[in-house]
Each structure stands twice: as structure tokens, then as C-alpha cells.
């Protein structure tokens, strides 16, 4: 089965289609999210790829296919996960710079070889700010992992006064520790809230990455609905069936991150001290993210050579539209690149293979940004 024949642009109930608007009022752009699979993990964990062709696992072969995918996509913004630090500086950065991009990179902590890289076309955007978040907090058991996030504030050349927040992250992979992922999301949302808000006005936010959570999980529900009552959930898996519950205290108060996923200092500066609630048993946030792909209704897709799950996401939020119904919607989803179905995955075979350079498929979406 030819993968390029499957991966066509499509609209869905989430999409409004590529309607025409006046050129001076909007900016159309594409964004890709792709876990490119660190070569070092193939070499240290070859048992995960036992049913793959050995030639397809070698870096020269994978590099060729990955970079062909980048070229074919030609996305305006590219968010990559599992980029090895050495390869970023020696390979990825030089390639994307030769194609007219600029980029930023953040390596994971605790000696991990890989991290996240975000690239953007210099003909469309300039980098106003870049921030990084480390999910490692000394002395806090829920935040003792190496995961990170990269947050970039981009401005369009069409209107340098407008800004958009691009978040690129790779959360913990451990199916038994939903609580750790929730803690990582709480501090990430607090950081997004700090960076994407200026003078009480929020920029549009696009959250990309390998979140290692499924559309049926409580964490996905938390991202999309903006609320999670955790008090009576199992302490690790966040189900209602375990004998040991989380209780009201989740993250320690000394982090100064409220149950509304905001820093206490930010709330004080905004004179919103009434939102400074801690250890209530319920987490909330303002963003109410929408998924480019149709959450649990979308077919399962190939994650690696042995699993079929949707764990990668492009999520987006128009927070000012939520807070004020009279505000014009800034960010509109036009199209998405179709993902293979479960049956397609079985026909295509284990990943990486001769068509796909990673053990993940990349996601891509086309947006219209009303940035007049």
C-alpha cells in the first residue's frame, strides 16, 4: 500500500474548509507535529523493532525518508520530538536553515540524548520569545522525570503586532503513571498561561507533541473540557477503581501553581487572587483545547511496531473567543492531513519501514489566522 495515496488533505466536522478571505486580513499556514524516533533508542532497545527490516532502522536510511517527508510536507511550522541533540546541530538545523527556516531546541534533562525542536519559515514568521519548561523539580516525586516543553511566541510579518503561541512537548511514556502526566500537564498549562497572556489578552495557542495519552483518557478530557475532579481517582492510573485515592492534595503548594493551573504570582499581578485556590480536589484551566483529529471517534493509528494508538496531537485554543463570545475567532482549522486507519496500518506493516522514517506518523494541519 502506498502511504502517499492515503495521506491526503481532508476536512472534517472540526474543519471549516479552505474558504477564501481578503489577503490583507488573514494568514494561512500549515503546522506539522512529528515524533521522529531517536536513533539511540533503536540501538538501545532493538527488541521493540524485532519485526522491522534492519536496513530500515539504520540512520542513513531513516534520515533520507524523514527528510523526504519534511520536503514533501513543506510545513510553515514544524514541531519535532525525539530529536537527538547531536543530530539537531549537525543535521536537522542545517537542513531546515537551507530550506528557509529558523529553529529552537530544548534537550531533555537527566542526561537524555533527545529533546524537542521547533522550526518556522522565516518568510512568514519571526521569533519574538522562546521559553523552555523542565518537568524535573527537585524533591517532588510526581515531577522527577526528564520530560520538557518548548514554547515559542511567533509573530507574522503580515502584522508584527500579533502573536501566536506554539507549544512543543513530549510527556512521560509510562502507561501506569497517569498521575505523573497530569502533574506535567498542570505545570505546562501554568507556563502556557504565563507566556500566552499579555495585559489580560490571550494569544491563540497551538499545542503539539507526543502526549502519550489516548483520546479516551481522563487527561484528554481535562485538556478538552478544562476540568478534572481528581480527589477520588486512583493515585497512579487516575481511574475510579483503585483502593488508594489521590485526595485533595496533588502538587505541593510550595510550587505556587494553583488548581486553576496558574502561577500565584501571575494571579496576584492580574488582581485575580480569587482564582488562587490550592488542594481543592479539582483542576481547571482556561484553554478548552480542540483537537485537529476527532479524538475518540478517529480510527486508531500505528504508534510503533507493536501498538496501535493515537498518542500524538495538534490541539488549538482560541481563549478570547471562550471568554468573550463577541470576540472574532482568530484561529480557524481549515484542513488536516488524513491519518491511516487501523486496516491501513496492518497493510503498511511495522514502522519504521521503507515508506515511513519513524515509528510514528506525522500530523499536519492547515489553519487560517485572522491576524489583522
Strand content: 25-35%
Going by CATH, the homologous superfamily would be Endonuclease/exonuclease/phosphatase
CATH topology heading: Deoxyribonuclease I, Chain A
* Helical proportion, percent range: 10-25%
Domain Endonuclease/exonuclease/phosphatase: 32-360
GO molecular function: 3'-5'-RNA exonuclease activity
Protein name: Endonuclease/exonuclease/phosphatase domain-containing protein
InterPro entries: CCR4/nocturin_mRNA_transcr (IPR050410), Endo/exonu/phosph_ase_sf (IPR036691), Endo/exonuclease/phosphatase (IPR005135)
Any overview of this molecule?
It holds the Pfam family Exo_endo_phos. It comes from Artemia franciscana (Brine shrimp). This is Endonuclease/exonuclease/phosphatase domain-containing protein. InterPro entries: CCR4/nocturin_mRNA_transcr (IPR050410), Endo/exonu/phosph_ase_sf (IPR036691), Endo/exonuclease/phosphatase (IPR005135). The chain is of the alpha+beta class and about 375 residues long. It has a single domain, classed as Endonuclease/exonuclease/phosphatase (Deoxyribonuclease I, Chain A). The chain is built from ten helices and 17 strands. Strands 1-16-17-2-3-5-4 form a seven-stranded mixed sheet, with helices on one face. Strand 6 and strand 7 form a beta hairpin. The radius of gyration is 20 Å and the shape is globular. The termini are far apart.
Please specify the SSE layout and strand pairing.
Layout: H1 3-6, E1 9-10, E2 27-35, H2 39-44, H3 54-57, H4 59-73, E3 77-84, H5 85-98, E4 101-107, E5 114-121, E6 125-136, E7 144-156, E8 164-170, H6 178-195, E9 197-198, E10 201-202, E11 205-210, H7 218-225, E12 227-229, H8 264-269, E13 282-284, E14 290-291, E15 312-317, H9 319-323, E16 331-337, H10 342-348, E17 363-369
Amino acid at each position: 500500500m502506498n502511504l502517499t495515496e492515503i495521506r491526503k488533505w481532508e476536512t472534517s466536522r472540526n474543519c471549516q474548509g479552505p474558504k477564501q478571505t481578503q489577503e490583507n486580513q488573514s494568514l494561512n499556514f500549515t503546522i506539522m507535529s512529528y515524533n521522529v524516533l531517536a536513533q539511540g533508542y533503536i540501538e538501545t532497545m532493538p527488541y521493540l523493532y524485532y519485526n522491522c527490516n534492519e536496513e530500515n532502522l539504520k540512520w542513513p536510511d531513516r534520515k533520507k525518508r524523514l527528510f523526504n517527508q519534511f520536503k514533501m510536507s513543506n510545513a510553515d511550522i514544524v514541531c519535532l520530538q525525539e530529536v537527538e541533540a547531536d543530530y539537531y546541530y549537525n543535521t536537522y538545523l542545517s537542513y531546515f536553515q537551507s530550506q528557509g527556516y529558523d529553529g529552537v531546541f530544548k534537550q531533555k534533562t537527566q542526561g537524555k540524548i533527545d529533546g524537542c525542536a521547533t522550526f518556522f519559515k522565516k518568510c512568514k514568521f519571526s521569533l519574538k520569545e522562546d521559553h523552555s519548561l523542565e518537568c524535573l523539580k527537585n524533591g517532588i516525586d510526581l515531577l522527577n522525570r526528564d520530560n520538557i516543553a518548548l514554547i515559542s511566541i511567533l509573530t507574522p510579518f503580515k502584522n508584527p503586532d500579533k502573536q501566536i503561541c506554539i507549544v512543543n512537548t513530549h510527556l512521560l511514556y509510562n502507561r501506569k503513571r497517569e498521575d505523573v502526566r497530569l502533574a506535567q500537564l498542570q505545570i505546562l498549562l501554568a507556563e502556557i498561561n504565563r507566556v500566552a497572556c499579555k495585559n489580560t489578552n490571550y494569544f491563540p495557542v497551538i499545542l503539539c507533541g507526543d502526549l502519550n495519552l489516548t483520546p479516551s483518557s481522563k487527561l484528554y478530557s481535562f485538556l478538552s473540557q478544562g476540568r478534572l475532579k481528581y480527589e477520588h481517582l486512583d493515585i497512579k492510573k487516575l481511574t475510579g477503581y483503585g483502593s488508594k485515592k489521590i485526595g485533595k492534595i496533588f502538587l505541593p503548594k510550595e510550587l505556587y501553581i494553583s488548581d486553576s493551573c496558574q502561577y500565584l504570582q501571575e494571579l496576584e499581578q492580574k488582581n485575580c487572587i480569587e482564582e488562587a485556590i490550592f488542594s481543592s480536589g479539582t483542576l481547571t484551566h482556561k484553554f478548552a483545547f480542540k483537537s485537529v483529529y476527532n479524538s475518540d471517534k478517529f480510527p486508531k493509528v500505528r504508534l510503533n511496531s507493536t501498538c496501535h494508538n493515537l498518542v500524538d496531537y495538534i490541539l488549538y485554543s482560541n481563549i478570547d473567543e471562550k471568554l468573550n463570545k463577541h470576540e472574532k475567532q482568530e484561529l480557524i482549522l481549515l484542513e488536516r492531513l488524513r491519518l491511516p486507519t487501523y486496516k491501513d496500518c496492518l497493510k503498511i506493516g511495522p514502522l519504521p519501514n521503507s515508506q515511513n522514517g519513524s515509528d510514528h506518523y506525522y500530523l499536519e494541519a492547515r489553519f487560517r489566522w485572522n491576524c489583522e
